[in-house]
Amino acid sequence: MKRVTIVILLLLLVGCFDSSSPDWQLTNTGLNYQNVAVNFNAQTLVNCSDCRLKNTSQHSPQGAVNFTGLYQKDALVAAYGDNAQLEVKIPNDAGRTVFKVLAKNSAWQLESESNSFALSEGEVTNITVYGTNYVILPLKLSKQRINYIWLKQ
């Protein structure tokens, strides 16, 4: 009886630890779903049947603003942005948070009314917006535009 109890306890303990990696990962090379790179130019993801991509574009005097939202089960999970207005927009429960991207003393900053985060091209940055964690990867930073990917954690 003791052996059976010990085996059951060990099985329960093993079940408590999740050894798998998260399905979504944003690394310095881009966004992956189950270790497969996400193509934001596609309509759907081959390995995610409940995912879809939705593109929106706006034109302004500063240039085009393109935003591709990646939805899983109709929830916004990640986005790709190409923005000539040097902004990163993150939709959330409060509407949306708009971060300005500014060059200060040869360093890039992601700034909202109350927060500021350091940015570097090709490096992942963790931020928190209204209690929700996001990871942002600036793909290209220049004084004319920003290309980025963000992932909701």
Task: Explain what you see.
With 153 residues, this protein is mostly beta strands. The chain has one domain (2-152). The protein is 10% helix and 56% strand. It is built from 1 helix and 13 strands; from the N terminus they run αβββββββββββββ. It has one helix at 2-16; strands spanning 24-27, 30-33, 36-37, 51-60, 63-72, 75-83, 87-92, 95-104, 107-111, 116-119, 125-129, 132-141, 146-152. The strands form 3 sheets. Strands 4-5-6-13-12-11 form a 6-stranded antiparallel sheet, with no helix packed on it. It has a 4-stranded antiparallel sheet with strand order 7-8-9-10, with no helix packed on it. The chain has a 3-stranded antiparallel sheet with strand order 1-2-3, with no helix packed on it.
Helical stretch count?
1
Spatial separation of the terminal alpha carbons? 44 Å
- Major sheet details: 6 strands, antiparallel
Given the helix and strand composition, which structural class is it?
A: mainly beta
What amount of the residues lies in strands? over 45%
Rounded to an integer, what's the Rg over CA atoms? 19 Å
Quaternary state of the chains: single chain
Task: Count every beta strand, where a strand is a DSSP E run of 2 or more residues.
Answer: 13
Q: Which shape, going by the Cα principal axes?
A: globular
The arrangement of helices and strands along the chain is HEEEEEEEEEEEEE
Number of domains: 1
Low-confidence stretches: 9-21
| Proportion of residues in helical segments | under 10%
Q: Report mean pLDDT, rounded to a whole number.
A: 84
The order of strands across the largest sheet is 4-5-6-13-12-11
